[in-house]
Write a structure and sequence with these properties.
The protein has about 160 residues and is mainly beta. It has 2 helices and 10 strands; from the N terminus they run E-E-E-E-E-E-H-E-H-E-E-E. The longest helix has 13 residues. The chain is elongated, with a radius of gyration of 19 Å. The protein starts with 9 loop residues before the first strand and ends in a 21-residue tail after the last strand.
Length: about 160
Amino acid sequence: MTSNNSPNNISSCRDRNDVSTYSIFVLAVFSLASNAQITSFHLVTENFPPLNMTNNGTSYARNDRVSGFATDIMRKLFATTGYDVDFTLMSDWDEAYNSARDTAGYGVYSTFRTPEREGSFQWVGPLYEEDWVILAPQDSEVTINSLDDLKQFQVGVL
């Protein structure tokens, strides 16, 4: 949040109303649109270091050129199951997400599990947890009980 108050007078409250922990999950493919027996999978993701990234600095990569610790976990998981898997890192998150949602045998990994997405996928995870913290000047009278409460403020991200 931005404020005219001094940035040296900032506090962080870490109670249930001020901090939200979000888990980044691996979506196990796997669109619910198909009941067919699938033995080969295609996992898509976005550039989200250090979880997923290209090892050559581009915005698109396939298979061995996709790296990151989430990708490493997925490779090991699939190696132990015996299923074939291809990886694609896409520069367009919407395209990656929609292909996993709409195409049998596709999945997306390293994504936030939300109520809106819950029924569209079979979920595996969590893979990683992340705390989101809202900061305001200590003498501020700002009260935030939900993300909707933030809509009235200008919010910055660090």
